Amino acid sequence: MNYFIDENLGSKLTGIEKAQINRLHLFEKGGLPARGVIMHYNTQLHLYADSFGVHGRYFSMYDFFQGTKDDEAVVNRGWIDYWENKCHFRVQYLPKTTDVRIHDGETFRMYAHFMDKDYQILDYINYFDKRHVKTMREIYDTRGFCSQIVYLTEKQKVASKVYLNRQGERVMEDLYDSSPDLESKWTQTIVRNFRGRDYIFDSQMELRTFFFNQLYEDGDLYISDRNLKLAEPLDKTDDRVKICGVIHSTHAQKQSDVMNSPIKTHYRFMIEHPDHFSKIICSTDYQRRDLVNRFPDLKDKFVAIPVGFTTPVKIDPSKRLTNRVMCVARFSPEKQIMQQAEVIKRLVPEFPDVELHLFGYGKGEKALRDFVKENHLEKNIIFRGFLTDLSEEYQKGTVSLLTSIEEGFSLATLEAENYGVPVISYDIRYGPREIIDDNVNGFLIKPNDQDALYERLRRVLRSPKLQQTLSAESIKLAKRFSEEAILQRWENVVNDVLAN
């Protein structure tokens, strides 16, 4: 089994999770067994996996110890009926919520939160004593069983967290220092009756290393996608464990000095302690060259495999618009989305119907919205939020923009090109240069040159003929990243690692 290791999977995807899910589909198509593994406790993991089209392909470290990593069965107890007709409690529905209060006669006993308006998917139940002080919380997995009980002190601090299997048996416990004058602080984890005995861990690293050793079987391969907190516990696993680490971003802190600038903390441990990592995988040949030049002794470990791949898509030319600019990115500082908004402001007098559609989310959204409002650009800059499927949006797109300071690859650029949407991008490390041929299927411009960004975008908007030419070349050149080509690279790595 090939395990793709990550910290968590939420309701919205970052580029790393998007790349990981793409790889799951790629491995499945190529007949390579693969599953995603997350380290965080996440009662909604299986719901999220379903929403991203990878049903049954993810499990967590906690699923492993709870005996539910291969268990997708959903049980619906019918809680409202149980409380009202079995327990003879009074259920009080709270307006404009999916919450209820449960009373035993006149005594308030419980507060429950459901995740749906039909009161079928229970999230948690809070229990209260006769003084209305919360004593504990039961947390339910979306598959329907009580997965965790959080016990509280009288001061409402966490005393312990107990993890249960489907039979309601304790399998793990987190213990906390609940001193009245301090925040609750994790101190210890106990794994109960695992393969015949208890195990006690005084650090999360010890617990994670233990988990990796217990999950691993001969012929398996761990592919670690987030290495800030995963590289060290993986490195401490048994010698028999095979590991590859993935670099998803730039590795140097300063792209102007990749030979001497400090290595980013996310990748520092892996690069400074490379012995246990069979391969260190980056996304572009450009980055691999930089890595090899700086660390020549690790030349045989560095491998370039693009995080994205293309599949043939059906494109309807009649849907293509001539004024729709796209950006698919988080609203984070390194993406510099404000520069795009400023360019659109400059273009509006000449192209009053130009539209910049922003597909993303993040902390920078408020500043962008304020800019739009202050400059009366509500009809020209549209916030679309996070969408799991952009295929219809790409069909309509005229051109896409990439204004990042740095990238690891830029999946969004490859996806746009595959749908015939040319990209105007800053020529940064790494990704755009390997996807875009300047003046052929898009444009590469000097980073932060907003005048050049304005000029190239203006040129595209003024010429439907140029749009058609760039679009046709985008589709053609995107085929360089076919799933067959990328799968072959992965097969070569997996076979090489397992053979040695």
Automatic annotation (TrEMBL):
GO MF annotation list: glycosyltransferase activity
SUPFAM superfamilies given in the database record: UDP-Glycosyltransferase/glycogen phosphorylase (SSF53756)
Gene3D superfamilies cross-referenced by the UniProt entry: Glycogen Phosphorylase B
Domain of life: Bacteria
Membrane-crossing segments per the record: none
Pfam families named among the record's database cross-references: Glycos_transf_1
Domain Glycosyl transferase family: 323-474
InterPro entries for the chain: Glyco_trans_1
Keyword entries, A-Z: Glycosyltransferase, Transferase
PANTHER family: GLYCOSYLTRANSFERASE, TEICHURONIC ACID BIOSYNTHESIS GLYCOSYLTRANSFERASE TUAH-RELATED
UniProt protein name: Glycosyltransferase
Gene source species: Levilactobacillus senmaizukei DSM 21775 = NBRC 103853
Lineage: Bacteria, Bacillati, Bacillota, Bacilli, Lactobacillales
